[in-house]
Amino acid sequence: MRIGWGLPALTAAVLLAATGALVAGPLTGSQDRLSDSVTTAASASALFADDFEDGDLAGWSKSGGSWSVVADGSKVLRQDKATSELARQFAGSASWADVTVQARVKPTVFGGSAGLAAVAARASSNTTFVRLALLSSGRAELQAVTGGRVAVIGAKSVAVTTGRWYSLALDVRGTSAQASVDGQVVASGAVPAGGGQLALMTSYAAASFDDVAVSPSTGATTPTTTSPTTSPPASTSPPGSTGSLPSWPQAKGDVRVSSTISISGTFDGGLKRYSGVSDGGQDEGQDPIFSVADGGVIQNVVIGSPAADGIHCKGTCTLRNVWWEDVGEDAATFKGTSASQTMTIDGGGARAAADKVFQHNGPGTMIIQNFQVRDFGKLYRSCGNCSSQHRRAVIVRNVVVTAPGKALVGINTNYGDTATLSGITVVGDSSRKISICDRYTGNSKGSEPTKTGSGADGTYCRYSTSDITYK
């Protein structure tokens, strides 16, 4: 038999979930069909169900990626193109508003530190939906995406491993949403009201999906937020922020560094304070304290003074829960070599930056999220006069900015740079002196770049007034 939108009946575990009980762990066990009596009861409450056992994608519509039904024990829906920036499959009714979306999701390949696999509800367009995403950086995030702008509602650290199935449940009701992974709530909070289809999606990742179900909302959500990090403990989020941010940590020891530390793989500093290499000046061309190889991760580090040139990323990298007490030349520099590479700064904070916090010299995309900065010159600058220039992109989301400061981002429009900002809270700047996005004409001659404008323009500086909150 078929349920909802002309699609096959689900396996027993998911049909039971569709009747109102959220899955309490990874879905395992027999793939046998339920008896007619149980199936009839499930059909009464399930709005949609698909386990892909019929081998087709009737009722689904694709946007990007390479999708097919394949065998993986049972039949599953797989998206194989890990280089796709956005790959999505949509199904169901555009009028669905208060629903619970559930699915099993197995990431198989992450194409970079910005990779994700997700389920979504209220997909009213290709770029507007509420999403529960598993991130390659080791987080589950509840996100509200509007016109492609991502607001992080809440998050929790999760061990995200390729080749493992996760049970995802996303409940939306009114202006509230709750997200669960393997039966554990990871985030909840306020989201935009509205209706839309369900969606399965990846970004810079390949993943398999199975046992998809949509049922009327359980009404279990409450408009609270979950801290995006688990260490150190979170403090109360300031008004206007899209996710609570942790308070500044206390260093758990000091490490004096005489020469650059090279990192490959994952380095966990245990929240010790690292300093040295330089005399603490602002001179250009200083060596970094850490040099991170392509694919590397550095986490739980406090960088003290002198900070030298902070951290250099040689390719795709993740800086997680890194704190700069007194920024030296720059906090971190992205020196990638490919447009497909991504530098992700997730959590942490920086203060006392006389000039730039994050410098972008190579190609690729820099993501700054769940971050706080105070007393700074510029949070992000795409190099304005490097001898080798590139088109660069920056995404800034869920960031708290405390005055004094000069500008959040600076980009070069003549090279096609873009800056996308959401969930920005600016504290202590009642006169609004801190520029949100500055546009420049860059050059490759070493000359001072020419500033051509400031503010949102919809092309290069991408944000709306609702993305910026002043406190």
Can you tell me about this structure?
- With 471 residues, the chain is mostly beta strands.
- It folds into two domains: 215 residues, Jelly Rolls, CATH 2.60.120.560; 217 residues, Single-stranded right-handed beta-helix, Pectin lyase-like (Pectate Lyase C-like, 3 Solenoid).
- Helix content is 4%, strand content 50%.
- The longest helix has 10 residues.
- The radius of gyration is 23 Å and the shape is globular.
- 55% of the residues are buried.
- About 14% of the residues have low confidence.
Defining traits:
Pectate Lyase C-like, Jelly Rolls, 471 residues, 35 strands, 2 helices, mainly beta, eight-stranded antiparallel sheet, 18-stranded mixed sheet, 2 domains, 4% helix
Give a short synopsis of this structure.
The protein has helices at residues 12-18, 36-45; strands at residues 2-3, 7-8, 48-50, 61-63, 67-72, 74-79, 87-91, 99-110, 116-125, 128-135, 139-146, 149-157, 166-173, 176-181, 184-190, 197-203, 205-216, 254-257, 261-263, 266-276, 290-292, 296-303, 311-313, 317-324, 332-334, 342-346, 349-360, 364-382, 392-402, 407-412, 418-427, 435-441, 450-454, 461-462, 468-470. The protein is mainly beta and 471 residues long. The protein has two domains: 2-216, Exo-inulinase, domain 1 (Jelly Rolls), CATH 2.60.120.560; 254-470, Pectate Lyase C-like (3 Solenoid), CATH 2.160.20.10.
